Amino acid sequence: xxxxxxxxxxxxxxxxxxxxxxxxxxxxxxxxxxxxxxxxxxxxxxxxxxxxxxxxxxxxxxxxxxxxxxxxxxxxxxxxxxxxxxxxxxxxxxxxxxxxxxxxxxxxxxxxxxxxxxxxxxxxxxxxxxxxxxxxxxxxxxxxxxxxxxxxxxxxxxxxxxxxxxxxxxxxxxxxxxxxxxxxxxxxxxxxxxxxxxxxxxxxxxxxxxxxxxxxxxxxxxxxxxxxxxxxxxxxxxxxxxxxxxxxxxxxxxxxxxxxxxxxxxxxxxxxxxxxxxxxxxxxxxxxxxxxxxx
Length: 295
Hints:
Blueprint: H1 4-8, H2 20-29, H3 31-41, H4 56-85, H5 96-106, H6 112-127, H7 134-141, H8 145-156, E1 159-161, E2 168-175, E3 185-188, H9 198-206, E4 215-216, E5 226-230, E6 233-239, E7 245-250, H10 253-259, H11 268-281, E8 282-285, E9 290-291
Antiparallel strand pairs: 1-5, 2-3, 2-7, 4-7, 5-6, 6-8, 8-9
Helix pairs in contact: 4-6, 5-7, 7-10, 8-9
């Protein structure tokens, strides 16, 4: 690694290289190398690599041409991915304005993993026109690959209950023990244990994917079963005592639209802890079993 005095003796536009091995090592660690590499890839390296013979206009035209070619390549990949995932299901006719907005946004999606998600957006809209709003597309456009990964983690933990099919993140159960005047107790699910700490929830709230207020259901009555769904698993939960309520965060309408593109996938460890929590306070019934809590 160079010392500060050694670096100061080098020309400002040259990345010092002694041999291939040391060059490879510096390429991993040097920020100057990374800037130079990005500049070359985006055709804005003229003042870094000064051994060129093109005018400013020629360089600009060359960069614009490369951008258009990459955008064309992006769209072709997304449409091919969509085509490969389609079959003989009945299709509708997407709105021409929607297709125009889609192409305008999707042409600048470079990440392969994000291109896969955009191909799902297109497929969903072709199969069910009107199911993906322009607002959802714009929100999705603003999401980085990391944002998408965070949201996927939230979707892995999402459930819904009652007659409301909107996705929710259950955070705990509130119940009373002993005297009526005593403060209610809360049995919490630690979402941070499943790589979704509160700081990540705040990021998803900032993107408009999750509503920013923890909500509480109405009091659940003993003897009245409540449908409860977790990632394809269906249960009936009947409170073992009166006064139980569910605490949760609700996905926003835009979050609902984007979540449906990801399908049903569950976190097995979370499922175990979720069912343990429900079994403590409810008579839990499914097609496979009935569990009675020990009170």
